[in-house]
């Protein structure tokens, strides 16, 4: 028997899904009618199996939508497959290969293994079968197995199978842990049951006996490896329902170990052996039922064995499960919050099992987390009051410690952090049972709040301690506003984690920077953090910066309001409270300005400086912004973003400290030219003077010395070879980008052609520096995301894109068709789960010299090409372009003038620009393109 063997009602439901007797009779009738024509007989049997499976699965789906029973649906589908296998076995042994005088070797048992062996299947699950022989294979047995398998294969099923004798099963089980697990959960389906029972008896006696520790260690190690592959966090916003942390495979692993170690046959028996309480068993069943409902819906909706809960499927499943929209939370976000809470419950059940194994000495004692491995062990404290150390873990002295003093619920974690101690599972279970003690009185306790601030700002491992508090439920109870965002996902492609996980990870990033572990990645933040006057305000602001997510209003504004209410309770003074509130209200500002504004434009820096107001706030906002971006998810932070933030920081600091005056523009140009001249020591004064005149003053103010020197040598080489069109490719590993420099005769569609060539080559443009020389040439530097870690590979890729740009500019290739094809293929595979309302801002307030266009819309292949093409058709000159993507949301900003070099002053002209660019941003363009392609195909 197995944990998920269909209960009686599931067995009855399976009979309703497929009448096994009638199916076997149909097979017999087909055999009689097609005697002598094996090809037609096989085809008709296959067709009948397909029909039975399709009808049964459709009925199971109808019942799933009605009763929402996920585990029951999985059991029904397993029962449906049982009926098909039994009918096929009867067909093979009676109609095709009947035995007149069977020998002792002509016996066969068919068992289900894997998920099918557990009596649970999703619509697209594999069918894993074990054909058991008493001794060795016979011609009769081989014919029966082959006949069954060919029908199943031709019916479109993915069948995993093995044909073994009992001796082989035992021998292989001893040698291979995967085979041992399969045999452990094998379930008899049809045939000679005596063979199956003999195998299970010998398996228990010869394999399981005395090997519990080995099996448990192997399964836990296997789980760790699986989680590394699927993503170590259970809070990934596109989780794998089967393989991910907190998913069905964790429940399977839990039961495999429990079944092996405790020698139980059914999950209910774990209450009898004392592993689970009745409430924990109920929780196991609840988690199992929910996860199976999600997995079955995934397979039904996609029509295949899909276990990744991707964005484009989440909303459809949320609706199928009956979730509705609430103020501030979409239906899909409510569904995913429930999912992550279930995943957390699965983690709690796994922890209970692991502790029980430790008590039985079947599992090694846990090591502290990755952050603690670098710390030197501290001497054990002599007195811990209501707590004690047992096996290097913090435990309670008795079950009353929290009831007699609720502050102990915070003190427990404070002591663990201060002494680098792991938590004893018994104490953790007591904590979770004592959450009701966290009431208004405890929340207002000065001592409890002081202890919490020490935990939050600890110089040891605050992320680890806060995560422990979160997983036990203490954090959400003590800070109720935090409790509202626990397990909350944001339905977008930008954030990789739930809101609470993002906040905890951001604290971890800040702790790493402060500890000196991130100097190579974040040199500026590592340098200025020790000079920050109020690290407490910084930690509190980072912990609270997304606390108001999921509310109808702007979360930055609402978060500032929460901070003003909460900070005094936490013991912060009025100045600290105002600093925290300001940081939360502005926590997106620096990132937006750095990534989507022209940092060489004086107005950009001046406007940002007005927001920041002081060098101290500038430091705090820079560090908070870095931690926020870094904690969004893997790959979101890169060196290019770091460079933009550093540039904005230094430019703003210079202005705030009086180091730069808007009146000394000419001196700044001279200074920049002088630095470049000094580094071009092999040039004559006459040659450099002539070269310097080719650039307008804005060039010298915008470009740093390194790039200006590279440009000078690049243009000189082109002049020497008398090339009017030239390209250059350089890589920058630290910033994670590759830079394409293009020198070409200037014309309005130049940037559009470059963007099209990049789109055709699959390159993602992240920024563009655009210059026009006094002799009518364009000098454009296009920054694209790096695709390869090795410079040689990346340079070859860059060279191919540069070659495409040159061919497009001289007319050797027609970009329009190439980009259209690229866009169409990209959209076919693109998720349609998201909608971003197009926004077009046309303003003269963000720059003294240019009109700024801010375009927001759904990101798609070729979008920048479409936008720059539309801008060129509007007879606008693009002075600089700034491209940012936040998941599915593209934010592209262009600094433009009319063809005379002036701003767009006319309201009518601005409105015309808005209409044209909003049309270019429209998400319907892809759909229109698809319909046109289909129309052409029909013709």
From TrEMBL:
Its cofactor is Mg(2+). Residues 499-621 form the HD domain. Uridylyltransferase (UTase) activity is inhibited by glutamine, while glutamine activates uridylyl-removing (UR) activity. GO terms for molecular function: [protein-PII] uridylyltransferase activity. Residues 921-939 have a biased composition (Basic and acidic residues). Keywords: Hydrolase, Magnesium, Multifunctional enzyme, Nucleotidyltransferase, Repeat, Transferase. SMART domains: HDc. Residues 1-381 are annotated as: Uridylyltransferase. Modifies, by uridylylation and deuridylylation, the PII regulatory proteins (GlnB and homologs), in response to the nitrogen status of the cell that GlnD senses through the glutamine level. Under low glutamine levels, catalyzes the conversion of the PII proteins and UTP to PII-UMP and PPi, while under higher glutamine levels, GlnD hydrolyzes PII-UMP to PII and UMP (deuridylylation). Thus, controls uridylylation state and activity of the PII proteins, and plays an important role in the regulation of nitrogen metabolism. Has four distinct domains: an N-terminal nucleotidyltransferase (NT) domain responsible for UTase activity, a central HD domain that encodes UR activity, and two C-terminal ACT domains that seem to have a role in glutamine sensing. This is Bifunctional uridylyltransferase/uridylyl-removing enzyme. It comes from Methylopila musalis.
């Amino acid at each position: 028997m197995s944990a998920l063997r269909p209960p009686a009602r599931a067995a009855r439901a399976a009979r309703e899904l497929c009448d096994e007797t009638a199916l076997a009779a149909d097979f017999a009738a087909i055999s009689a009618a097609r005697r002598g024509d094996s090809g037609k007989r096989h085809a008709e049997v296959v067709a009948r199996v397909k029909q039975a499976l399709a009808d049964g699965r459709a009925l199971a789906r109808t019942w799933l939508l009605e009763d929402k029973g996920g585990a029951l649906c999985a059991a029904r589908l397993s029962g449906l497959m049982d009926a098909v296998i039994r009918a096929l076995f009867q067909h093979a042994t009676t109609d095709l290969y009947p035995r007149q005088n069977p020998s002792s070797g002509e016996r066969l048992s068919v068992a289900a293994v894997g998920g099918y062996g557990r009596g649970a299947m999703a619509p697209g699950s594999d069918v894993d079968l074990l054909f058991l022989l008493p001794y060795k294979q016979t011609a009769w047995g081989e014919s029966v197995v082959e006949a069954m398998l060919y029908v199943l294969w031709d019916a479109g099923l993915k069948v995993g199978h093995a044909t073994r004798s009992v001796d082989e099963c035992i021998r292989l089980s001893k040698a291979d842990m995967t085979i041992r697990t399969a045999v452990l959960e094998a379930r008899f389906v049809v045939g000679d049951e005596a063979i199956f029972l003999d195998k299970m008896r010998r398996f228990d006696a010869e394999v399981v006996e005395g090997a519990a520790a080995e099996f448990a260690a192997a399964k836990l190690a296997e789980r760790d490896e699986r989680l590394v592959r699927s993503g170590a966090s259970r809070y990934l916003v596109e989780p794998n329902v089967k393989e991910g942390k907190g998913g069905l495979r964790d429940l399977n692993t839990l039961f495999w170990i429990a079944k092996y170690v405790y020698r139980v046959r059914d999950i209910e028996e774990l209450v009898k052996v004392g592993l689970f309480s009745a409430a924990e068993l109920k929780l196991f069943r609840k988690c199992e039922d929910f996860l199976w409902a999600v997995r079955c819906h995934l397979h039904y909706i996609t029509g295949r064995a899909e276990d990744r809960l991707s964005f484009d499927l989440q909303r459809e499943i949320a609706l199928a499960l009956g979730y509705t929209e609430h103020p501030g939370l979409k239906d899909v976000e409510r569904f995913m919050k429930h999912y992550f809470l279930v995943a957390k419950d699965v983690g709690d059940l796994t922890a209970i099992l692991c502790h029980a194994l430790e008590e039985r000495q079947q599992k090694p004692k846990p090591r502290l987390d990755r952050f603690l491995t670098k710390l030197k062990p501290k001497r054990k404290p002599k007195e811990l009051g209501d707590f004690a150390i047992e096996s290097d873990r913090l435990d309670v002295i008795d079950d009353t410690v929290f009831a007699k003093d609720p502050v102990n619920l915070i003190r427990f974690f404070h002591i663990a952090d201060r002494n680098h101690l792991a938590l004893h599972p018994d104490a953790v279970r007591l904590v979770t049972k004592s959450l009701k003690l966290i009431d208004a009185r405890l929340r207002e306790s000065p001592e409890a709040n002081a202890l919490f601030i020490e935990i939050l700002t600890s110089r040891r491992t605050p992320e680890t301690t806060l995560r422990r508090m979160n997983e036990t439920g203490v954090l959400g109870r003590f800070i109720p506003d935090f409790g509202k965002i626990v397990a909350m996902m944001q339905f977008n492609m930008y954030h990789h984690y739930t809101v609470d996980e993002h906040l905890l990870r951001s604290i971890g990033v800040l702790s790493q920077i402060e500890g000196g572990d991130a100097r190579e990645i974040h040199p500026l933040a590592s340098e200025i953090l020790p000079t920050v006057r109020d690290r407490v305000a910084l930690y509190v602001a980072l912990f609270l910066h997304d606390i108001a997510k999921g509310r109808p209003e702007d979360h930055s504004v609402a978060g500032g309001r929460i901070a003003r209410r909460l900070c005094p309770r936490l013991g912060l003074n009025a100045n600290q409270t105002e600093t925290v509130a300001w940081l939360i209200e502005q926590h997106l500002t620096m990132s937006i300005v750095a990534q989507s504004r022209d940092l060489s434009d004086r107005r950009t820096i001046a406007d940002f400086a007005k927001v920041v107001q002081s060098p101290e706030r500038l430091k705090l906002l820079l560090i908070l912004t870095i931690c926020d971006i870094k904690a969004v998810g893997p790959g979101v932070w890169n060196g290019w973003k770091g460079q933009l933030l550093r540039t904005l920081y230094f430019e703003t600091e210079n202005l705030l400290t009086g180091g730069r005056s808007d009146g000394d523009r000419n001196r700044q140009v001279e200074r920049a030219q002088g630095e470049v001249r000094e580094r071009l020591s092999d040039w004559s004064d006459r040659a450099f003077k002539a070269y310097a005149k080719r650039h307008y003053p804005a060039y010298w103010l915008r470009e740093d010395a390194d790039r200006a020197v590279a440009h000078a040598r690049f243009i000189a080489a082109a002049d020497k070879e008398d090339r009017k069109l030239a390209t250059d490719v350089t890589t920058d590993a630290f910033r994670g980008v590759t830079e394409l420099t293009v020198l070409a005769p200037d014309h309005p569609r130049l940037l559009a052609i470059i963007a099209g060539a990049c789109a055709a080559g699959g390159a993602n443009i992240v920024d563009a520096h655009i210059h026009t020389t006094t002799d009518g040439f364009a000098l454009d530097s296009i920054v694209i995301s790096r695709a390869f870690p090795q410079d040689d590979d990346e340079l070859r890729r860059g060279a191919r894109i540069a070659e495409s740009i040159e061919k497009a500019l001289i007319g050797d290739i027609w970009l329009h068709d190439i980009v259209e094809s690229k866009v169409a293929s990209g959209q076919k595979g693109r998720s349609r789960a998201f909608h971003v309302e197009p926004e077009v801002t046309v303003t003269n307030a963000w720059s003294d010299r240019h009109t700024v266009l801010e375009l927001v819309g759904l990101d798609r292949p070729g979008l920048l090409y479409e936008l720059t093409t539309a801008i060129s058709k509007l007879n606008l000159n693009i002075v600089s372009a700034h491209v940012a993507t936040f998941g599915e949301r593209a934010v592209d900003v262009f600094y433009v003038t009319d063809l005379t070099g002036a701003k767009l002053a006319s309201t009518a002209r601005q409105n015309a620009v808005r209409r044209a660019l909003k049309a270019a941003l429209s998400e319907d363009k892809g759909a229109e393109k698809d319909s046109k392609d289909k129309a052409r195909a029909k013709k």
